[in-house]
Amino acid sequence: MNSREKILREIAANKPMKLQIPSLPVSPIDVERFVKVQKFRTILEGIGGKVVEVKDTGEIESALMALKGEGSKVACLCPVVGEGNVVVTPKQSAAELEAIDTAFITASFGVAENGAVWLYESQFVNRLLPFICQHLVILLDADAVLSDMHEAYRCIEVNKEGYGLFLAGPSKTADIEQSLVIGAHGARSTTVYLLDPNKQ
Amino acid sequence: MEPMAALSHSKAAAAFIADEKRTDWHDETLWFVREKRDRAAHTVTEWENLRQLASDIKDHTLSDLDHYLSVFEQRAIQNGIRVHWAADALEHNAIIHGIIRDHKVKRIVKSKSMLTEECHLNDYLISQGIEVVDTDLGERIVQFRNEAPSHIVLPAIHLKKEDVSATFHEHLQTEKGNNDPQYLTEAARQHLRDKFIQSELAITGVNFAIAETGGFVVCTNEGNADMGAHAAAIHIACMGIEKIIPRSADLGVFLRLLARSATGQPITTYSSHFHRPREGQEMHIVIVDNGRTRQLGRPDFRNSLKCIRCAACFNTCPVYRKSGGHSYHNAVAGPIGAILSPNIDMKKNADLPFASTLCGSCSNVCPVKIDIHNQLWKWRQVLAEAGHTGKSKTIAMKIMDIVLSNPAVYRVSGKAGRWFMRIFPALFKSKRFNPWYKQREMPDPPRDSFRDWYLKNKK
Lengths: 200, 459
Prior knowledge:
The structure holds 2 protein chains of 2 kinds. By secondary structure, chain A is an alpha/beta fold. Chain A is built from 7 helices and 11 strands. Chain A is globular, with a radius of gyration of 20 Å. The longest helix of chain B is centred in the first third of the chain and has 23 residues, at 20-42. Chain B starts with 8 loop residues before the first helix and ends with a helix. In chain B, 50% of the residues are buried. The chains are: A alpha/beta, B alpha/beta.
């Protein structure tokens, strides 16, 4: 008998009586959009992220232009914003992507309770990109800010693509005597542009 | 480093607390993390319901574990992931070694995985001439120092920045005496970035494996698991059988609880969902038993398998805070370690369930409602019956049994004891002869017992 069979047999012999699976919460914690956006902003800023609320992509386009202008290596995967000056393909190695300074990526959803955004692999093309760049710029529709993780899992399809993630703010660590340091191995900064055409 | 015959918890703890100032510092630091957890938990009005939900999901899963593991395997294979099963630590290590050997790789990075610590993977691979770079900052620090991690979430919590500075000066040539955490982290970033870019094989843990979709989730703040996994041509993920959860929607519950319980954050920076290897990559998952099926068969202790490795119990435990993780001589220390480890080796870990005041704080903070303090007490019964409690303790208990269950013996012993304390105070106020006196004041011996007084004075 191989290990697989041994383990499954042991489990069958040792497991307790079958218990019911519980059902999950269905009502979002927050429903009002302005509440969700406000919470998203407060929490994300609290964990070291930056949030900029904009009416249109103008400001983001300018930011992109400015970065290109100063000679930064920029990858832009948001067609509405413009083009970067580096190309990103799925097969590029870490060595090829290593020099990218800033990456612009569109997110599918935001989560108000924790300031996270959900990104599907296709939105950043190469799995390394959100981690290997020095700075991350995220585009998110204000409409796409969800209330909480339960709502998020109702809206996303985790296996739609081979990889996806919740990303909340810049990378960090407190491993050295509990002192918070922003910028561990992933991005040193994360800026989320919240796009709201109805914004005053 | 080799797993050596370890000091008992009480001896190791005695050494730890000999440095009172450092113990106070360690205590305060861990309590600070507990406070962060409290603040985060209090922002979630339905926190207690969430704990119950998580507990119920895990209880349900354990009651159908073989089914969920089979489904997970089937779907993972459909996703293009290669699934391996390891009955014990040795097999786990051999499987990983086999993959490394088959691909003839040399540059290996590993992110935090308590399972690989439990299996002593690094030591095993070193004995085979293979080096692995631990990429979690805390783990890299202790790896440089040839120490074990002392906490499952904060591996280097026992170290001060001066210690880290000295270690980095030695291994990374950072400025001597520069203790700035920012500076030191930057040095580690540059050093490890190079390792990521060069890596050929990445080993990660698994926070949650999803039966419904055949995928798994890895949570980090640093991004190190992903840097390795997405750079390397081979990704090996290691999981204990108990990491399975039924549905992807269940992740909503666990991801709301995990980081808040662990560090007081609403969520870790990265919660990566892996389903299929990237094109051209090989993705493996190793499913490990190593005593878990045995624990599953223990009705009193099986729900310790619900653990999501948040370490909230460590941070609140007054004994852990004041004795440090190394005193527990196991990969997983603290209260949860004390109820998991005796299952793995009863003799070696018999001291751990006694490293507790049974205050119950651990059970209070556990996000999946493991009744840790009850299990600590129950393990004591099991260990005593199996003969693993020290001879002196057994004898002392037997004497107490005789004295406390015989009123006449009790009265005579009391009288003799009071007389002895009056005539030979030096013996009782001696730390050498009276262990009770080591950390406590002795009362002054009264002339009469309460019974004597009562008989004289009752009206």
